[in-house]
Amino acid sequence: MSGLHQTAIVGVGTSEQRKRLERTALSACLDAALSAIRDAGMDVSDIDGVAGRWPGPGGTVMHPGSLDWATLLGIPVRWVQDTYPQGVPAVLDAAAAIAAGLCSSVLIVGGQAAIRDATAKVAAYTRPENEFIAPWGAFTAVHFALLAQQYLHRHPRSREGAAEAAAIIRNRGHANPEAVMYGRGPYTAEDILSANMIASPFTLLDLCLATEGAAAMVVTRRDIARDTRSPVWVLGGGCDWHKQQYVDPPRYEEVWSIGSDAAERAYRMADLKPKDIDLAQLYDINSFEVLRQLEVLGFCPPGEAADFVCQGGIGPEGDLSINTDGGLMSYSHIGWGGPTLKIVEAVHQLRHEAGDRQVADAQVGLATGAGSGAQYHNVVILGREPH
């Protein structure tokens, strides 16, 4: 049995998600962290591991700064994760640390607020001061557009499939009262295609949001998890890292299939196949990345994602429910907390507490992070029952 199987997510929490919060990122993150701990039925003193980018003010300027969370919470800790303290990598690292006996219960937290400069056209974090980026003015969407253009050249039908995928995801946010874009729909594929062009082939509605808020979760060991109200078990996972994100421009031949090895390892570890997955919370930073991930994760053959989508594969009557809260395109995308939101929604679904958006009898879910333009991809498989 894998060491990851000895762990479960037992608490999740979020702050309110808004286009703009009238509060600091630290305040929102603290709300989410305390909410996740309460959801786990734990006390702050039960936490002995932390993975969380420190948003300030105060504390260190040497990011991520997980140890500042221990200072704020007033607890000693046995383990911190400062390499990539968010989403799937944080869960897998926490699970590995717990399995190794380095700690027992890990808080993962992240988010953002006050990100908008009234004079800027894009959020600052989408145009980092990186080599080759700052001098030429590229931003996140451009990295992904370079790859999407090549995929579109190879598969011309993919443009309609990507637009259909975006419409489906946005309509799920349209129906979710907790989503930033609640009531902003419904959308058709034609609406996606006719929106303002941002970075060809992406229109505005092909792209994710840049919003404010925070998300958190608590991972703990098996014996503690069994005494909590509703644990969701870590069944498998994997990460593929190619290059540092948003430095060198991505090359299609190198990164379009990134994540396939991580997915294969995750399925093998969980002793499952793509057909066993009831729902997938895909990192929908743009519509073409959704198509790519459907192929990489084995839900359809390479080059056939557009047909899979247009034939209803991810629609209301389809076999695979994706991004049930509205995803990054319509629910929220909160920077360092964005990947964690994917797992939070998977947990709600597997606990059968997602209300009107609940996937019937959901037993196994999958969540991903990042993608081709970022030049890394990660996958975790979660279950309602332990391995």
Automatic annotation (TrEMBL):
Domain Thiolase C-terminal: 260-384
Pfam families: Thiolase_C_1
Transmembrane spans: none
GO molecular function, one term: acetyl-CoA C-acyltransferase activity
Cited PANTHER family: ACETYL-COA C-ACETYLTRANSFERASE, NON-SPECIFIC LIPID-TRANSFER PROTEIN-LIKE 2
Protein name: Thiolase family protein
Organism per entry: Elongatibacter sediminis
Organism placement in taxonomy: Bacteria, Pseudomonadati, Pseudomonadota, Gammaproteobacteria, Chromatiales
